[in-house]
Amino acid sequence: MIDGSLTIWCNNEFNSEQNAERDLFVNGVRPHRLLLLDPTDTKAHYTLQHAEIAFGAPDVKAVVEFPSVRWVHLNSAGYTSFDRGEVRETLTRRGTIVTNSSDVYAEPCAQQLLAMITGLARGLPIALDAQRGDRSWRQSLRPTLPLLNNQTLLILGFGAIARRLIELLTPLQMNLIAVRRRINGDEPIRVITLAELDDLLPTIDHLVNTLPANAETENFVNATRLAKLKTGAIVYNVGRGTTLDQDALIRELRGGHLGAAYLDVTKPEPLPPEHPLWNTPNCFITPHIAGGHRTEKERQVKDFLDNLRRFEQGTPLRNRVI
Prior knowledge:
Blueprint: E1 7-10, H1 20-28, E2 33-36, E3 53-56, H2 60-65, E4 71-74, H3 85-94, E5 97-99, H4 102-121, H5 124-132, E6 152-156, H6 160-169, E7 175-179, E8 190-192, H7 194-200, E9 206-209, H8 223-228, E10 234-237, H9 246-254, E11 260-263, E12 283-285, H10 296-313
Parallel strand pairs: 1-2, 1-3, 3-4, 4-5, 6-7, 6-9, 7-8, 9-10, 10-11, 11-12
Helix pairs in contact: 1-10, 4-6
């Protein structure tokens, strides 16, 4: 249990048109002291030395520098800057907790993937391109459209997005498999280790990448693994652009080996207009919007406040990454 008030540092960005989310946050953190800072203020990180809790996107160097910080709650699902050996070691040694907002983004990302998986299976992008283009009656699509039932979908990662996607896809009677570094044994679907991955790639129809960005995942979906996929397989990436070899993806799509690719994340971002991914056949791109939703800012605040109550009571925090 926490006795007395703490100081909460916050540089979270709230909706500019209305103050509802900001008011929800300010009222929700009482009776704690609040340092509410402009997210564009590059000098704001120095004030972390006066806080025990940080919410938003604090600078990792400042968190490491100021031992007064006991808990960091990131407003994103990604935590790349904190996911480094020396940072983990320092924060773990002194007992600083880091949590992320993965629950805020699991639902929209899973729904986005569901939309693309089902949309590609039903030929929607091709039909809609015809409507906006030559308006040809593409009836020839009809006998080519597969049913997803019994198709095999492999998910790289078993975080919040993957778990929610599994729930959404289960009614479609697909063969769902996930890759996980450590298997607990209580997963609702078949889970394999990294050592088994390469042998399984030639058997799958869909490869869904939800991996975070770190040293171990850079170019994880590389040229060798893309080449091992069966002809016509579809690749989806809502993790991070650095986890996929985009040049190899372009070659496999242009050569006709892969059926399609859906990318919500790229390297770099924004993707320059002249980048070859834009005109690669059967490559469908969205501008990193999979996690976005109308209530995003409200859910960020509620997610933090839920963990704040847990922190006050001395109970385990949700979505702990360090």
